[in-house]
Amino acid sequence: MAWSWSHTNEAYSAAEQNVQNQDREWLETVYGEWHAAELDEDGELDINSFNEEQYNEALLEAKELSDDVLADYIWQRMSDAATCDNGGHNAWACPSGCHTVPFDLVEVAE
Fold first, then answer.
1. So what's the pLDDT on residue 68?
2. In 3D, which of 34, 31, 98, 37 has the Cα closest to residue 59?
3. CB contact at 8 A, 21 and 105
4. Which run of H or of E encompasses 92?
């Protein structure tokens, strides 16, 4: 079960920053997962769908994109879906919710 977003602007900013702070492999994987998701007959995102061919093509495409472009794409798709875990602590970063980011800013170790 998933919830819809209902958070403060500060929480959305923190979640977006948490996406920006992810490592390259995470960004490429989540980018691929968004491309692999398909729409159902009502035009809604089918979180149970996964097109492996589209996923593999997107992984190759992601190699050519900058981290910022990947993160911005993921954030846009996340924002459109606006789905989070029960309790609202973590925003779903991918269509199925297997990749998430918290709505609280996570400090990055330097």
1. 98
2. 31
3. no
4. strand 90-92
Contacts of residue 9, Cβ cutoff 8 Å, sequence gap at least 6? none
Handedness of CA 89, 90, 95, 97 (dihedral sign): negative
Start-end of H helices in the chain: 9-20, 24-36, 52-62, 67-81
* DSSP category for residue 93: S
Q: What is the pTM of this model?
A: 0.90
Residue 97 one-letter amino acid: G
CB 54 within 8 A of CB 27: no
**Residue 11 carries which side chain, given as an amino acid letter?**
A
Q: What's the burial of 37, exposed, middle or buried (CB within 10 Å: 0-12/13-18/19+)?
A: buried
Name the residue among 25, 23, 106 with its Cα closest to residue 63.
25
48 contacts 33 by C-beta, under 8 angstroms: no
Q: 33-45: per-residue pLDDT in tens?
A: 999 987 777 767 7
